[in-house]
Each structure stands twice: as C-alpha cells, then as structure tokens.
Amino acid sequence: MLIDWFTVGAQLLNFIILVYLMKRFLYQPVLDAIAAREAKIATELADAAATKAKAHQQQAEFEQKNQTFDEQRAALLSEATEAANTERERLLAEARKAAEGASAARAKTLQADTQALHAEIVRKTQHQVFEIARRVLADLADVSLEQRACAVFIQRLQAVDGATLAALSTALKATSAEAPALLRSAFALPAEQLATIQAALDETFGQPIALKVETAPDVVSGIELSAQGQKLAWSIADYLTSLSATLNEHPAEMGAA
Hints:
Blueprint: H1 5-140, H2 145-159, H3 162-173, E1 181-185, H4 191-205, E2 211-215, E3 222-227, E4 230-235, H5 236-249, H6 251-256
Parallel strand pairs: 1-2
Antiparallel strand pairs: 1-3, 3-4
Helix pairs in contact: 1-5, 2-4
C-alpha cells in the first residue's frame, strides 16, 4: 500500500491548526472560566470564613454579654433580697417594739386601774367600818366613836417607849407656836377630846406642846400626830391595812376560816 505523504502532511497540518484553534478559542477560555470560577469560589469561601468568624465573634460577645447580664442580675437579686430581708427585720423589730409598748401600756393601765379599784374598795370599806363602829359603840356603850378614838390614841401615846419615844420627844419639844406639831383627825375633835389629848401630850413630854389641828377625811376614823418627820397615829385604816395584808399573804387560810 502506497502512503500519500502529501495527504498525511495536510492532515497533520490540519490537526496542528485544529489544536491551535481549540487552544486559542476553546480550551483557554475554559481554563480562564475555570480559574475565574475557582477564584470566585475561593473568594466566596473566604467571605464565608470571614462571616463564620464574625458570627463566632458575635456569638462569643453575645455569650459574654449574657454572662455579664446574668452576673448583674444575680448581684441585683442578691442586693434586693438582702434589702428586703433587712427591711423585713426592721419592720418586725418595729412591730415587736410597738407590740411590747402596747402590752406595757396595757399592763400599766391595768395596774393603775387595779390600784385605783383597790384604793376605792379600801376607802369604801374603811368608811363602812367607820359607820358600823360608830353605830355599835353608840348602841352598846353609849359612847361616841370620836371619844373612843381619842382614848385609844392617848393609850397608844402612853405606850410608846424606847427609841420611838426618844425620837418623838425630840421632835415635839422642837415645836413652837410658829412651827407647831400637826394633829389630824378624820372628824372635828370636840373641845373636850382636844383638851384631853393636849393634856396627855404635855404630861408625857413634860412641857406644853404647840398643836395645829386639822380635819383630814383620809385619816379614816383615826387621829394622827406628826412633827419634824416623826409620826404617831391610830385609825381603823391601820386595822384594815393589816387585814388586807393578811388576806393577801394567806388567802386560803382566811377563806377556810
């Protein structure tokens, strides 16, 4: 078989021209397009990486802000709780103090009322006993309560001795017309009883004793002599006070009696 070298050369030339044309007009644009595409993809990947990094940074910042917010909220909640507890303790203390004050005031009022009631009962009892004694003496002995009171007072005066007598004597002897001893009685002393008491004082202390006489209803059915801080007295109230003390000390025994 004969080879047509002219045809082979033409075919080879055509192939070289084809390759050149393909490289010039087809392959190179494709390579350029691929390179551009790769560059675009690389740019997009870089942008994505930057966006991801920024997102991570924002997420970290958000988490940091959340942590800071949580810490601030916890601190504020702790402060608010502490302030609330402090205020609660203050209010409880004020309420407790107010309650104690009210309780003390009620107790004081109750004590005052009790004392006033007791004093009123004692006063009424004393006056009732005074009236009963007056009637009994008038009915049985034909003697007034005033006369008997003077007699008992003089008996008590004459029975004083020892240190009590010495102190009373010193006080009475120091009296004068300008500073007399005070003789108080629950009733107006008749001239006869007053003279009897004056005579008993003068005789007991060996000199005239200056007296100032007063009527004092609080000295229930009794007579009281005072001078220079010294006092000698007798009254039904003394017996009632003694009886009241006995009742308070031995209520069961008195009830059984």
